[in-house]
Design goal:
The chain is an alpha+beta fold. It folds into two domains: about 1-125, no CATH class; about 155-325, no CATH class. The chain has 13 helices and eleven strands. The strands form two sheets. The protein has a six-stranded mixed beta sheet. A hairpin with a 2-residue loop joins strand 9 (about 280-285) and strand 10. The longest helix is centred in the first third of the chain and has 11 residues, at about 70-80.
């Protein structure tokens, strides 16, 4: 079984993935139920803290609560005794037979943690493969021209007029500032540029006028500003992104500049001479991926740009990445 913590981790993917020996979520909680020091035990068992998880074990010791015998009993105990922040509607603790999903916050950022058994992994790879992936970078091989990729995940579409390619480019930026929603786990979904492949994205963006991008989502506007007039691919733009300092990567007022040249000047004004040594970047013809190191507190944020040919070669990984950008609960439609 797997434990995953989606938080401020020292991992390029911003998550911690740990294997635990139990076959089910219920078995894991039963094994952990009577630990003398829940915080210390969780840190040792799960490779670090999971904010609030120890609360249910502490309450069990304080009140001499019996081990749960069934999933229903465990669900009741979790809803009564597991501490989560901001759960006004009782929707942040979600337990099924094969998976536990919990959302909370640490007063700085939102976080989520998960316990997922092997049955769930086998039956839902299109929702879980990216969540469980912990080796940088993602694979880079791509399918042949003409390959097809389908999905049913909510995305935000940039209407690219007069483009006739059958492919699409998908943009997934996973950040702490989340300018389109205000909270990092109130997710707006990936962005898709239909009619393009990744090698043609930079030239398309260079030709877009400033008034058009005012209607675009923030991440699309940021990508537009990162591309320079002489860029023939998006690699240099992602390299610039990796160099941007700080928690909020997008310059203020980028949607109000009069021209693409002016927007790009704003980007260049912010750039240090080089990216942080911990930042990671991998550029391939059909996927570009960046893990931008912010600092020792926030760790990394991520940006993935991939097209249909990459997604067709890795359909479950691509769909699960789209789910990851769409909702903190991978089973949420």
């Amino acid at each position: 079984m797997y434990f995953v913590c989606r938080w401020r981790e020292e991992s390029p993917f911003g998550k911690r993935v740990v294997t635990v020996p139990d076959a089910t979520v219920l078995q894991w909680f039963r094994r952990c139920w009577d630990r003398n020091d829940p915080d210390e035990w969780i840190n040792a068992e799960l490779g670090g803290d999971a904010y609030g998880l120890s609360s249910v074990f502490e309450r069990a010791r304080e009140r001499n609560l019996s081990r749960p015998e069934t999933v229903d009993e465990l669900r009741t105990l979790l809803h009564r005794h597991l501490w989560v922040e901001g759960d006004d509607e009782g929707a942040f603790i979600r337990l099924s037979e094969h998976a536990l999903r919990v959302r909370t916050d640490d007063d700085e950022v939102d976080l989520a943690y998960y316990l997922i058994d092997e049955d769930a992994v086998v039956t839902s790879p299109d929702r879980l493969m990216y969540l469980l992936h912990d080796t940088w970078p993602l694979p880079a091989d791509a399918a042949e021209p003409g390959a097809v990729f389908t999905h049913d995940v909510r995305v935000r579409t940039i209407r690219c007029t007069r483009l006739v390619e059958p492919d699409s480019v998908f943009s997934v930026r996973l950040s702490w500032d989340s300018p389109d929603t205000g909270r990092n786990l109130d997710l707006a979904g990936a962005i898709v540029f239909p009619g393009l492949s990744l090698p043609g994205l930079a030239s398309y963006l260079r030709g877009i006028d400033a008034p058009v991008i005012q209607r675009w989502p923030c991440d699309a506007r940021l990508l537009w500003a990162l591309v320079a007039s002489g860029d023939n691919c998006v690699g240099p733009a992602l390299e610039r992104y990796a160099r941007l300092p700080g928690y909020e990567a997008s310059p203020a007022g980028i949607d109000r500049v009069p021209t693409h040249e002016a927007a790009h000047r704003e980007i260049r004004r912010l750039l240090p001479s080089q990216s942080h040594s911990k930042s990671r970047i991998r550029l391939n013809p059909h996927i570009g991926q960046v893990a931008r190191y912010i600092d020792g507190f926030f760790g990394f944020d991520q940006w993935f740009l991939f097209d249909t040919r990459w997604a067709a070669a890795h359909p479950d990984l691509a769909r699960s990445l789209l789910h990851y950008a769409n909702h903190w609960d991978p089973w949420q439609a």
